[in-house]
Amino acid sequence: MLEEKGKIISIEDDLVWVQTQIKTTCGTCKAKDSCGTSAVAKAFSPKPNVISVQTDMSVKVGDNVVLGIDEGFVVLSSFYVYILPIFGFMLFALLGEQVLESQNLLGELTTVLLAFFGGWLGYLLARRKLANVACRNNENILLLSVDTDQIPITFTPSCK
Questions:
Q1: Segment 51-62 mean pLDDT
Q2: What residue spans define the domains of the chain?
Q3: Which one, out of 93, 99, 103, 133, has a CA that is 20 to 30 A from the CA of 12?
Q4: Per the confidence metrics, is the pTM higher than 0.90?
């Protein structure tokens, strides 16, 4: 089970809305001050994610929580996103190569166009599959615990 920390921003019956922040590894790198990638990461600051989770735990708005995400869900989503477009690309490229080349129809340009069309169809299939999975996201994301040891941090500037 993968874990992610978040903060509850809204509650509706047994459905809670949790905000998580996308983390980049640039913040922990020692070379971040002299790295071009770090400068690009700062320019495109990550946006927070908002996830709905069904729970029967006693929570309130502002609670820090730990979410659990099923590893199988992550692997399956990765498969859809990466493998299906590549598979469609290769399948349609082979189809174009074998069928159209044997018929002497339009040459390599048609094969390349068919390959991109197959990749696009694979992308559409992946998007559709992931939309179906996203509709059932409450099955794959669980509210594991509530952090009750919240320490309020206050900052008092010492201006003289």
A1: 80
A2: 2-147
A3: 133
A4: no
